[in-house]
Structure formats: structure tokens, C-alpha cells
């Protein structure tokens, strides 16, 4: 469903709710719209309307809709279900998606849901729950088709025809030993054109991409992008035992989540920030970073206070002061964003950090000279004071050099000590550029004017 269609359906639903025409809404939610579109409609609705819409969805359709909801919203609905309904909706989920949701539910409910499953399905979900959701093991799906190397192609075809449903995104069959050790892969494109009498061992590929279960999800996404993969087997790193496979649809989710994480973190928001979260919940989430920002603002204000006598004597300084801080903040943010992106793509390491820092210092110096000249010329025309023009030019160059240094080294340092650069980098950078901007401008003014 396009964005415009989502808004059109949302308007229709809102108008129907206002007039009490629930039959039309029921029709939309229980057949007229695909489950994916119903999920987007729920995500685009404020909490009160979202609850009413959910109550209008028939029980038989809840599980299918839940698959497409964001994790935060899906968990909200599941927490309000009794165990019987949870068991019923869980039948619609792939094992990896179900494991992700169960991690956020009370342990007692999780045990009851697992107890309702067949031994095979329970084993699959329990295996997935043993891995972090941000790892290949937590990302994988255990629904795979495996074959032995000693059978021929004709037997493979007969085996596939007996399958009620081939798992989605199946581009290769996985060849394993009797102990489930991964031996190779057999692409379907190769299987289709092979001699029916040829054995799997003769035509399987032994050079292929395999992923360790402990590999971080971000690295998995980079590997899929680099190798143009549709799916990849996941193994136990110690003995190459096949555990499952990761498919491109799950990797797309990882890429989207990482993009959302970076965007929201820059603003100090949580990954699961819901556009239509309740007022108090949203207030609490944002209050923390507003408090941190207040502390940094007081630090900058303290630096300004140190030069109160200077400001009292030259009013023009107070007018021009924000320019230096603003220029440093923008320049630093440009570098910070670039370096965080490089870290996310594993492009930055010990071997190229020095080159990157030197490059940014030269860029900062050249831009500093260019814009310091412009600012100085405008200042001289505005206040008819050549000394202030020179001072603001010097402060601008100094702050842009500090911005380049901080923007380059700060995210690398934060990453090294285990702090997310996207979350903390912008706050620290803003403080540095503000403090250095005020300190250099007012310090130079104190030396050369007073």
C-alpha cells in the first residue's frame, strides 16, 4: 500500500469511527485490506483509535496482522491477550519472528506458549531464544530443506514433491551429513538442469557463504549486501552443525532497523519510539536527553560568564557570538555523520584513522579560511571595527579545526569504549563546539580589545 493509500484509508477509518459506522471498518480490516496494510493502518493511528481498530479485527486474523506490526506495538497487543489467544496467534508466526516477540513477554506466558507446541516446533523456538536477537542465531529461521550427499537428483525431486510447502526464499538446498554437519549447498538453478542420475555429491557446491550463529546482525547485513545473497546457512562455529538459515527479508528488516536507530539516536530517542506513543511515555523517554542537554547548556553558559566584563564593554561580541558556535556545530556534525557511517560499514580502522583525521583538518582549515573571510568582511561592514572582524575570523578557524578533530575522533573513541556514537556523539560534539567557539571568540576579544 502506498503512503497516499494509507492516508486515504486512515481518513476513511477516522470518519467511520466518528459516525459510528463500524461495519465498514470491519470490512476493511477483515478481508478488504491485506494483513500488511492493516498493520500499517494500526501503526498510523493514535493509541485510542488503534485500540478500537484492534478490537474490530476478528480473532482468526489477529495472528496474521501481528506478523507485520513493529515489535513494540505487537508486544503491546500480545501482553493484553490471555494464554489461549497467544497460543492461537503464535501458529501464524515463523519461528524466528515468534522468538523475537516471546523475548519481551513474561516468562510464565512464554513457558505456556512453548508447552502448547509440538516437540519439534518447541525445540526450534527454544534454540532461537538461546541466541541474542541481534545475532545471526537470533535472526535465522530453522525452517530449511536438507538433503544427503549420496542420493541422486531424481530422488531429490521426488522428495521435494512430497513437501506440502517449500519455505519462502528457498534458492538452494542444504547438503548435510547424518550428524547435520553442513557439507555443501545445491542451488535450485543447478538442480533443475542436472542429470537425474547424478548424485548430490557430484553437483553440490562446496565453496559457499556460511555464517556463524554468533555473528552480529549488522555484519550479516553487510555480508548479504557484499555477496548479493538471497539466503545463507547458519552454523555452530565449532563443528559446522547446521542450525538454520537467514533470508533476505530478515536482512532488510535489520537494515531498516539500523537506519531508524541512527536517525532516532541522533535526536536522543529510543529505537522503539512510536510516532503515536502516549503522552507520558513519550515525555519520560525524551526527558532524559533534555536533561543532559541542559547540563551541556550550563557548561557553555559558564564559559560565557567567565567573560562577562568583556561582554559588558563590547556589546557587538554578544551579537556575533552565536555565529562562531553555529559554524563549528554544523561543520562538526558533517564530519560526525560521515565517520559514524564509516564505522557502521566497517570502513574505518586503525590503519586509516590518521589519514581521515588529516583530511578533515585540511578541509576544516580551508573552509575556515573561506568563511572566516566572509564573516570578517560582513562584521567589518556591520560594526565598522576591523579588530572585531579579525577576532571573529580567527575564532571561526579555530572552532572549525576543533570541530573536525572532535567529529573524527569522538565516534571512534565512543565505539572503542562501548558507547553508541549515534546516541551520544551529537550531544558531546555540540558541547565541544559551543565551548570552544565561545572560549576562542571571547578569549581573543579579551586579549586584543580589553
TrEMBL record:
InterPro entries: CBS_dom, CBS_dom_sf, Mg_transptr_MgtE_intracell_dom, MgtE_N_sf, MgtE_transporter, SLC41_membr_dom, SLC41_membr_dom_sf. Residues 204-263 form the CBS domain. GO terms for molecular function: magnesium ion transmembrane transporter activity; metal ion binding. SMART domains: CBS, MgtE_N. Keywords: CBS domain, Cell membrane, Magnesium, Membrane, Metal-binding, Transmembrane, Transmembrane helix, Transport. The chain crosses the membrane at residues 287-308, 314-340, 361-382, 388-414, 426-449. Pfam families: CBS, MgtE, MgtE_N. It is found in: Cell membrane; Membrane. CDD domains: CBS_pair_Mg_transporter. Belongs to the SLC41A transporter family. Acts as a magnesium transporter. Homodimer. This is Magnesium transporter MgtE. It comes from Marinomonas alcarazii.
